[in-house]
Amino acid sequence: MAYRSIKTYGPERGLTCAYRQWAASSHCALLHGYSLGFTFTFAAERLDARGWVVDFGAGGFGKIRTWLHEMFDHTLLVATDDPARVEFQRLADLGLAQVRLTPSVSCEGLAAFVFDHAQQIIEVATQGRCWVESVTCHEHGANSAVFENPRAVARKVSAEVMTEIIGRL
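Above: the chain sequence. Below: its structure as tokens.
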């Protein structure tokens, strides 16, 4: 892999949402909110005609930006396995919340969830030339989690192994 570019979509962008870790045995089991931020690392073996890994405008990252706002801007995230899911859905039905279902509401789970969506968008936008290497989800300055593309990890390991083999020759 030869090229990487990084897009930081920080908490100042207004992705304010609320959620709870229903299975936690602490105050995290209660509804609380964050202004989430995300850092995306994109990778490609060759640049596009403009010399970019990813177009950070409408033709590439712009679609991710739009999705991020639909998903996380003034929304209530509810884990699909939350036992109170029906009650949260009732809030949506009453017009009191924009509920978004996610497989997990942990920082780690959100990083993986965002990765899945971003990877699909980037793959289409670049016709497979580029991929998402990793997504970091930032709850605030002290808490974040990273999800790395398993294929990107395998490429790194393969490159490290090849370097080691060549170095021994």
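The mean pLDDT is 91.
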